[in-house]
Specification:
CATH topology of the largest domain: UDP-N-acetylmuramoyl-L-alanine:D-glutamate ligase
Oligomer: single chain
Radius of gyration: 24 Å
Shape: globular
Strand order of the largest sheet: 6-7-5-8-9-10-11-12-13
Low-confidence stretches: 474-479
CATH superfamily of the largest domain: Mur-like, catalytic domain
């Protein structure tokens, strides 16, 4: 744990006690703050009590004494409208920050003066988690104490205190960026941008501006790496280069760059501050399938290249990356049928990345729809042998697919998995893939995308077990 000592003896409120909020409360308490904490969820409050956090409803907080409120990232800060706690704080002139800001202040006040810790921050719409985990994997393989967390894995304040070899590798969501104005990474990475969380930020322009703000805060002697294959990210890169606030490297998939890092037909090239040189063939990285993962690999390479001088060592680590759960994750096979868990695909753009990897897809999709639906996936419809639609979006997705893709209303994930398996097994495809890539949020039927992916994995395990169970005597079994 990283104790936050800046608030020792001061009165601080923490509202929202999910994963990161509970972590912030523990870190503040360990640092000697006079803590007042609350969550409207009874489940969250019970978890806080188990963690020895004293609870107090917000109406009984000593608001006049509070100069700082720590807000859980999921609680509305501005859109669709500020939460009542935010309004109260603003009215009284108290700052509203998040756990990433507490982390940044703890480093500055307790550790960074002696140069003990570097921070690599990764943001973007898609690919954040894989890029973050891959950076951590590369650094660990090269002897660094890579502490990976933030919006992936451990909350940032649950990471270990730094040593001389520590590099913090953090996935940072747009929600967290809003609440961490003092987070100034040594390396900032922007994967890509597409419409997401618009209900939270009000517009695509606001969303992009929040992502850009993290890159602008990179320390002067640091650098930023930007995936430039979408218009919004390319515009951010152009502005960064013009401002010269930090060294910026462009990263592209499919486009040769005069200066930058790029991938052509799976081959990774480095033309950042040297003549273009081929580093290796990413097709050899078996857990980084598809062009989207090539982008993740190129961004990870760009993030670490000034820490690890030998490109061959970086590429060797990329090849050995084991992949992440719920991101185009192989979870089993029955005969010719392959099952792939891509539950992390919570929007159409993410689902497109998985659909591009396979030619014969029996697609399970649906949940709580994001803005735009799945109309943009039309170029991938020829790959779909059939679609199995679940959750709140099933009806609307069915209308989009009507006349283009054979689709059925499965309703639940269990029915969808069973039907997709039977159809895939009976198909003439050489290697049919039952793919869970929902293009939706999970909250209509599941706690989160991890829960959805875990249920899918368990259902596949059940199918495998049923197929391998010996037949009963007397039921035609060979004895």
């Amino acid at each position: 744990m990283i104790a936050v000592r800046e608030f020792s003896g001061k009165t601080v409120g923490v509202f929202g006690l999910a994963r990161s909020g509970l972590s912030a409360a523990r870190a503040l308490q360990a640092g000697g703050a006079r803590l007042f904490a609350w969550d409207d969820s009874e489940v969250a409050r019970k978890a806080a009590v188990k963690a020895n956090i004293v609870l107090e409803p917000t109406e009984r907080w000593p608001w006049q004494q509070m100069k700082t409120i720590v807000l859980s990232p999921g609680i509305p800060l501005t859109h669709p409208e500020p939460h009542a706690v935010v309004r109260q704080a603003k009215m009284l002139g108290a700052e509203v920050i998040g756990d990433m800001e507490l982390f940044a202040r703890a480093l500055r006040s307790g550790y960074e003066a002696n140069g003990a810790a570097r921070v690599i921050a990764v943001t973007g719409t898609n690919g954040k988690s894989t890029t973050t985990a891959l950076i951590g994997h590369i650094l660990q393989a090269s002897g660094f104490d890579a502490q990976v967390g933030g919006n992936i894995g451990k909350p940032v304040l649950d990471l270990s205190e730094p040593t001389a070899k520590t590099v913090y590798v953090l996935e940072v969501s747009s929600y967290q960026i809003e609440l961490s104005p003092g987070l100034a990474p040594h390396v900032a990475v922007l994967t890509n941008l597409s419409p997401d969380h618009i209900d939270r930020h009000g517009s695509m322009e606001n969303y992009a501006a929040i992502k850009a703000s993290l890159l602008k805060r990179a320390v002067p002697d640091g650098h930023v790496a930007v995936g430039v294959d979408d218009d919004h990210s390319a515009a951010i890169y152009t502005k960064l280069v013009g401002s010269r606030m930090a060294d910026a490297v462009a990263v592209s998939i499919g486009k040769v760059l005069g200066r930058g890092v790029f991938v052509i037909d799976g081959k990774l090239y480095d033309a950042w501050d040297q003549p273009s040189a081929q580093i290796g063939d990413l097709k050899a990285a078996t857990h980084l399938l598809g062009a989207h993962n090539w982008q993740n690999a190129a961004l990870a390479y760009s993030a670490v290249r000034r820490l690890i001088r030998d490109p061959r060592a970086i590429f060797a680590s990329i090849q050995r990356f084991p992949g992440l759960a719920h991101r185009i994750e192989d979870v089993g096979r029955i005969g010719k049928v392959r099952f792939v868990n891509d539950s992390k695909a919570t929007n159409a753009d993410a689902a497109a990345r998985a659909l591009a990897c396979f030619p014969d897809v029996f697609w399970i999709a649906g949940g709580r729809a994001k803005e735009g639906g799945i109309a943009d996936l039309a170029p991938y419809f020829p790959r779909l042998r059939k679609a199995y639609l679940i959750g709140e979006a099933a009806q609307s997705f069915g209308k989009t697919l009507a006349g283009k893709v054979d689709a059925v209303q499965s309703g639940t994930l269990e029915r969808a998995v069973n039907a997709a398996f039977e159809d895939a097994r009976a198909s003439k495809a050489d290697e049919p893939v039952v793919l869970l890539s929902p293009a939706c949020a999970s909250f209509d039927q599941f706690r989160d995308f991890e829960h959805r992916g875990d249920v899918f994995r368990d259902l596949v395990k059940g199918l495998i077990a049923a197929q391998t169970k010996p037949a009963r005597k007397g039921a035609g079994a060979a004895i």
